[in-house]
Amino acid sequence: MGGIAALARAAGHEVSGSDANVYPPMSTQLETLGIHLQQGYSAAHLEPAPDMVVVGNALSRGNPAIEAMLERNVPYVSGPQWLAENILAGRHVLAVAGTHGKTTTSSMLAWILDCAGLQPGFLIGGVALDFGISARLGAAAAPFVVEADEYDTAFFDKGSKFLHYRPRTAILNNLEYDHADIFPDLASIETQFHYLVRTVPGNGLLVVNGADTNLARVLEQGCWTPREHFALADADWSVAGLSPDGSTFEVLYRGNVVGSVNWQLLGAHNVMNALAAMAAAHHAGVSPQVAAAALGRFQGVKRRLEVRAQLDGVTVYDDFAHHPTAIATTLQGLRRRVGKARIVAVLEPRSNTMKSGVHRDTLAASLQDADRVFVYQAQNVTWDVAGALRALGTRASVSRDIGQLVDTVGNELQRGDHVLIMSNGGFGGFHEKLIARLERNSAPRC
């Protein structure tokens, strides 16, 4: 929604917005653009009445601003519909869908197109470090990259957001069960992906993870568009000479080497993201050689294994991982990078799916690559977190107080440690509090 607000401002509209618990980097980005932010959802925020209210999918009936909007007959629309009608119409839309890697892959793709001189527009669910922003209009009629979320659209539109985007190029990155608050099972998510496939034209392209059996099942329901598959091996787009940490590899297109990548990202999951982005960019007219060179300069995305501090011999990372698969792949990538150095994982189960306990049986296994595990259990997490981590033994501990957790983690840290903090929210300022503690520890003493 912050990205949509930025696009509306760039398109010449006067924009303001309401949200709860606004935090950086989005709050900072919006304020810099001159977009007035209001905390909470007071009906007074609709005075004077706006010409249009763009409603995010986090808001439901009973919300004071929503009730006032309906009672006063103020025009309203969902974010995806507004985007489709006002920004995407008439453009080559490249949509990036999947349970994991959407933000990183979208950022890679936008960066490749930009390096190729295409001046793309984009809407990404995070801040790409190469751009410093999460959304821009791009040149008139230029391609537009959109992170295509399967979550529902709005309280009045329960279809997935990505059904509004009508892409010509669609990446299907992977598919697992998630969003337990709106999807009862994996089959219901597969149905939404099938509906997305139905919207891609016959002269478009589906870029599909060839190693994902769930996506294969989606395509068995019907496909009317050419496909190219990507995988580490045995696919249209694959790799050779992959280094253990994923920092270097050669790209193969239909068995022929078409480029080499030497970059600062790590992990096999990011190599897969890169293949998807290169395939989609190729469909938009960018050569693999240009794409590979662009990836060599790609800096990554905020909150995706982002180094927040290096203090007192300790490196602190911030990562958005909140699903066991993402947690495991992030830890695996970091392990391959740091070798035998100690990894301290700090996790906040914050997503609706995590809070419901759907992933309790796979949580411990996802944290196996960490030497020490700390999990924050908020009041709204009512399942037995400690019991779910029992397989990790004394490596794992649970805390219900963030201040206490900062002290506990801080007391255990040693020089050479790598602290991986994982949350899809602000984590009660844990990152900043831990960094402040490390700064105090590293300050010279007279």
Record field, number of beta strands: 22
Shape: globular
Cα Rg: 22 Å
Residue share in β-strands: 15-25%
What class would the helix/strand composition place it in? alpha/beta
Q: Helical region count? A: 15
Query: Order of strands across the widest beta sheet?
Result: 7-6-8-5-11-12-13
Features:
446 residues; alpha/beta; six-stranded mixed beta sheet; seven-stranded mixed beta sheet; globular
Secondary structure layout:
Blueprint: H1 2-10, E1 16-19, H2 26-32, E2 36-39, E3 53-55, H3 64-71, E4 76-78, H4 79-88, E5 93-97, H5 102-115, E6 121-128, E7 133-136, E8 144-147, E9 152-154, E10 157-160, E11 169-172, H6 186-198, E12 205-209, H7 213-220, E13 227-230, E14 237-240, E15 248-253, E16 256-262, H8 268-283, H9 288-296, E17 306-311, E18 314-319, H10 324-338, E19 343-347, H11 352-356, H12 360-366, E20 372-376, H13 385-388, E21 396-399, H14 402-412, E22 418-422, H15 430-442
Parallel strand pairs: 1-2, 3-4, 5-8, 5-11, 6-8, 11-12, 12-13, 18-22, 19-20, 19-22, 20-21
Antiparallel strand pairs: 6-7, 9-10, 14-15, 15-16, 17-18
Helix pairs in contact: 5-8, 5-9, 6-7, 8-9, 10-12, 14-15
Describe this structure in words.
Helix 2 links the parallel strand 1 and strand 2 (36-39). This protein has a seven-stranded mixed sheet, sandwiched between helices. Strands 17-18-22-19-20-21 form a six-stranded mixed sheet, with helices on both faces. The longest helix has 16 residues, at 268-283. The mean pLDDT is 92. The radius of gyration is 22 Å and the shape is globular. Helix content is 33%, strand content 23%. The protein has 446 residues and is of the alpha/beta class.
